[in-house]
Design brief:
two-stranded antiparallel sheet, alpha+beta, GMP Synthetase, Chain A, domain 3
């Protein structure tokens, strides 16, 4: 699909949502992770698309699949890149290159429920995330591309969820064997 076709589609959807804002509210497609043995899981969406995850060998996995943490970084990178592409297409900007790299730092001790020397639990989540965007477009000033990226990231769903610390509801169902 060309950027022009994408831009036209985005403009049509925006016009419809301006007329009927309630059309924008929806439940997102669920992700269902099922245990496949060991530390391996198969996560599937409602359309049947699957992603397999596993842990590194050091944590009892095989190390031959992506980890859940990497999958989160991949989701962040692809969401940011998609948001940038949608806005560039809508604005008629001819991208010639776009790459989004996401890195993070974490402490495995948190995953394992360990405590620091002072007895405080080690944080299991990421303690920093870096999103690096490399972008180029024909005939567009670097400052304009910088602004485009910054504006896009303010309304890109996954980056926004991380920035806003979206509440997480947990509902546990225990079944019999």
């Amino acid at each position: 699909m060309t950027l022009q076709t994408i831009g036209s589609a985005v403009q049509r959807v925006m016009a419809a949502l301006k007329r009927r804002p309630e059309m924008g509210l929806h439940a997102d497609t669920s992700a269902v992770a099922r245990w496949a043995g060991g530390t391996r899981f198969t996560t599937r969406n409602e359309a049947g698309i699957e992603v397999e995850t596993d842990m590194p060998a050091e944590l009892g996995g095989t190390g031959d699949r992506v980890t859940p943490g990497w999958l989160m970084r991949a989701g962040l990178a692809s969401c940011a890149a998609t948001s940038i592409t949608l806005v560039a297409a809508r604005e008629g900007i001819a991208l010639t290159s776009l790459e989004v790299q996401v890195g993070s730092n974490s402490d495995t001790r948190g995953l394992l429920g360990l405590c620091d020397a002072d007895g405080a639990p080690v944080h299991a989540g990421l303690f920093d995330v870096t999103l690096r965007v490399t972008i180029a477009a024909s005939g567009v000033a670097p400052a304009a591309l910088q602004t485009l990226v910054e504006d896009c990231l303010r309304h890109s769903p996954v980056p926004c969820a991380l920035r806003a610390s979206t509440p997480l509801a947990v509902d546990v169902h225990v079944t019999s064997v």
